[in-house]
Amino acid sequence: MNTLAVNVRLAALQLAASRVPVLPLRAGKVPFGNCPACARNACGGRPNMKTPGPCACPLPCHGWAAATTDTTVLGSRTWTPYWERAAAVAYHPGGAGLTVVDLDDADAITWARATLPPTRTIPTTRGEHWIYQGTMPSANGVRPGVDVKSRMSYARWLGPGTGPVAALPDEARTLVTKPPAPARPTPSGLTVSGAGGECPHRTPAFLERGLAMAEQRITAADSAVHATVYRAFLAVLATHGRCGCLTDTHIDRLFTAAQAKGESLRHCTDAWANARTRLGV
Q1: Which residue, 275, 47, 272, 278, is CA-closest to 178?
Q2: Which of the four pLDDT bands, split at 50, 70 and 90, describes residue 192?
Q3: Which distant-in-sequence residues (6+ apart) come within 8 Å of 223 by Cβ?
Q4: Predicted TM-score (pTM) of this structure
Q5: Is residue 137 within 8 Å of residue 71, measured between CB atoms?
Q6: Which of 138, 139, 189, 257 would disulfide-bridge 176, Cβ 3.0–4.6 Å?
């Protein structure tokens, strides 16, 4: 193993010992591709870190979801060929309870200094990483030169940085928060024609079931992801878009599921807007 590979694996083991989930990056600062058994999500995939799904692949597949703190796995013979070809180490910020505000240029840094509270900073090739304590959805291009890396994302490890780590501020959270669809509030106790009781949309279990079905539909898609996301958004809005039930938290769940399948924030926003337009909500 060459010197670079040795140093990369050593850094990964040190981070893992500090409970920071890590994975190897190949040339180009990208994760290793899925193995043949996991290609095209044939294994069932790993939709998130808490419930990794049926995939039990021992290789560093699935991008950010391969990140681990298990030093036995990281030092295993199975992973050794990947470390031998690794150009850098990455970590899963959300898995470490962190959010990285990735500032790509001087203008983005100027914006951050005027907008966000000071926190730990790490120099990058073109700009800086600002590290905050707390997690949020990840999104690229939230404004010119600014990406957010937290849950379901990875960031390249560039060193410990300088300064104390501040709590994740609302100014960062609002970068990816989607406004709720305009709602027509339903007065408390309003009955639905023929239902003989309170609006079923106000029943938590009813709403939760609808959201879970939409998330499952998106997660299970192995083709036509754009269309699947749109149809899932449309189904949720058709049932819950007019009664005032949907909150930012509910919408964030749908966007997170879509982004985990590779949809960009712009595509999610467009799909949501198109579904609202079609339904007139």
Answers
A1: 272
A2: very low
A3: none
A4: 0.64
A5: no
A6: 139
As given in the structure block, the two tokens for residue 107 are 């203008």
- For the record, the structure tokens of 45 come out as 């995939």
CB 127, CB 145: distance < 8 Å: yes
Q: Which runs of E-coded beta strand occur in the chain?
A: 22-26, 30-31, 88-91, 98-103, 120-123, 128-133, 139-143, 146-149, 155-156, 166-167
54: its two tokens? 């049926």
pLDDT at 189 over 50: no
Q: What is the pLDDT of residues 58-109, one digit of tens each?
A: 889 888 888 999 999 999 999 999 999 999 999 999 999 999 999 999 999 9
**Residues 123-146, mean pLDDT to the nearest whole number:** 93
How far apart CA 185 and CA 208 sit, in angstroms, is 19
Structure tokens at 273: 């807007």
Token digits for 113?
């200094």
